[in-house]
Amino acid sequence: MMDAVAMTNERNQMFRDLFSGKTPQRVPISNPATQDFAIQYAGLDLAECQWDLTKLEQVYNKFCQDFFTDTYPGGSIRIPSHYQILGSTCIVMSSSGFMQHPEVVGLLAEEYDQFIASPYDCLVETILPRLYTELNGSPAKVAMALAKAMRAKSDDLAYLGTIQAKMNAKYGYATMVRALTEAPFDFLADFLRSFKGISGDVRRCPDKVAAACEAVLPLMIKKGTLPNSSMLGATFIPLHMAPYLRDKDFATLYWPTFKKLVETLVGMGQKVELFVEQDWMRYLDYLYELPENTIMRFEYGDAKLVKEKLGKKHIISGFYPVTLLQTGSKQQCVDKAKELLDILAPGGKYWWQADKSIINLDVNGPVVENLRAVLDYVHENGSY
Amino acid sequence: MLGGEDKMDSKYYITWEEYLADHPELERKSKQAIEPKIQKYEDIMFTFIMDLVL
Questions:
Q1: CA distance A221 to B5
Q2: Domain spans of chain B?
Q3: Which pLDDT score is estimated for A1?
Q4: Cβ proximity of A11 and A52 under 8 Å
């Protein structure tokens, strides 16, 4: 049995090879289950564990012992404490303990010009006070709320970082780092104009939408910049709205600033990992244009077509349907893993991830056994 | 310096050069030690603000 440090070195080398276009010794694997799943798997209360992080070490220990993965599983960007302190209306905990993002409007249609003139000023002065009740009040009250929230988030992230370091040291995971940003159009849609709002804006005021995307691009670049670029650092960009746009709107409103974002980050020596959400099959020719070895994790679509059109230039991931883990037999789940391995692994440039993350766990269902079988199958059969 | 801030044009994000212009007394002090710390907290605040809408 290899020690943990040697395992980390081996896994780091696999990802260095993958990211630089070389064929690694085997297909690297990331477990799709989230921290929410791990808490439920440990039989603990979801809401309580996200507030009392001291319970999470045992959660991760059990989870890491029981499931194979090459990268640290879990992690969370939705820690409830600072959202609660700020009076968040855009990220809220449900009665069952899941952090949810309701449809919100942070920017009104008549405020486009203000946003275009200075997006960051507009965020601070107009959008955040609308989305966070404690940022809407007297300067002293806002300052106190902000200070408390920043301290809470800093404490929580530090604690989670300690757990991650312990698990990396014990289980020998690859030491990956990530920054998070968004395509300018998606940023405009998600918390600012809403799905419904941006869909109307595309028709009513496309010039404003285009100008807003250009204006916010420098913020998206800065947000996606890692403190130190390294071969194991990647900027994660989840892609949301493109499948809901007409081709001509995608070409003029979504693509230009998204492409600039990716090219700029890659130009700084960083890797970019796209989560290609929903079905992007009609945009494959666009995706081909992105810089070589862009990582693309697909949700839906034709894996064969993607391998054929993009697989020689880019790193492909995703496609494994997590719903099958709930609805299929163990054999069906393993057969699907084999099918995707046969399609996507030849020639390298394949990272095993599922089509989406697993959040909820039906403790009486087959997901645990099926997930374990799939991860073990890919681990044992993914060697080059 | 991270990417993008040269084009941010915001009164809520201040580069070290802008900060130094507002605090000329620092010219006589240990600028090399002060600059990374001031810039670090400017960037931490930027990340915190942006994460609220991501």
A1: 9
A2: 5-51
A3: 59
A4: no
Q: Which of A149, A130, A125 is nearest to A90 (CA)?
A: A130
**Hey, is the C-beta of B30 within 8 angstroms of any chain A C-beta?**
no
Whether A120 and B10 lie within 8 Å, measured CB to CB: yes
Task: Yes or no: say if A135 and A146 are a contact pair by the CB < 8 Å rule.
Answer: yes
Half-sphere exposure of residue A132: CA atoms within 13 angstroms, side-chain side: 24
- Nearest residue to A78 (alpha-carbon basis) of A41, A58, A40, A51: A51
Q: Do B10 and A121 touch (CB under 8 A)?
A: yes
Cα–Cα dist A118/A121, whole Å: 5
Q: Regarding predicted confidence, which is higher, A201 or B1?
A: A201
Q: What would the mean pLDDT of B25-41 be, rounded to a whole number?
A: 89
Is the pLDDT score of B3 beyond 80?
no
Instruction: In whole angstroms, give the CA distance from residue A301 to residue A9.
Output: 34
Beta carbons of B53 and A218 less than 8 Å apart: no
Q: How many residues belong to chain A? A: 384
User: What amino acid occupies position A278?
Assistant: Q
B53 and A86: CB-CB below 8 Å? no
Per-residue burial over A223-242, b if 16 or more Cβ lie within 10 Å, else e, is: bbbbeeeebebbbbbbbbbb
* CA distance to partner chain A, nearest, from residue B17 (Å): 18
The answer to whether A44 and A84 have CB atoms below 8 angstroms apart is no
Would you state the structure tokens that stand for residue A231, as one six-digit string?
A: 């071969």
DSSP A291: P
pTM above 0.90, yes or no: yes
Phi, psi of A33 (to 5 degrees): -75, 145
Residue B8's pLDDT is what? Answer: 75
Contact B53 A131 (CB under 8 A): yes
Structure-derived torsion over alpha carbons of residues A344, A348, A353, A355, reported in degrees to the nearest 10: -30
Cβ contacts below 8 Å, chain A against chain B, sum to: 75
What's the ipTM? 0.94
The distance in angstroms from the start CA to the end CA of chain A is 21
Residue in A153, A190, A222 closest to B2 by CB: A222
Confidence of residue B5 (pLDDT cuts 50, 70, 90): very low
Helix axes A206-223, B31-51, angle to 10 degrees: 130
For position A255, what pLDDT does the model report? 98
Task: Kindly report, residue by residue over A203-226, the tens digit of the pLDDT.
Answer: 999 999 999 999 999 999 999 999
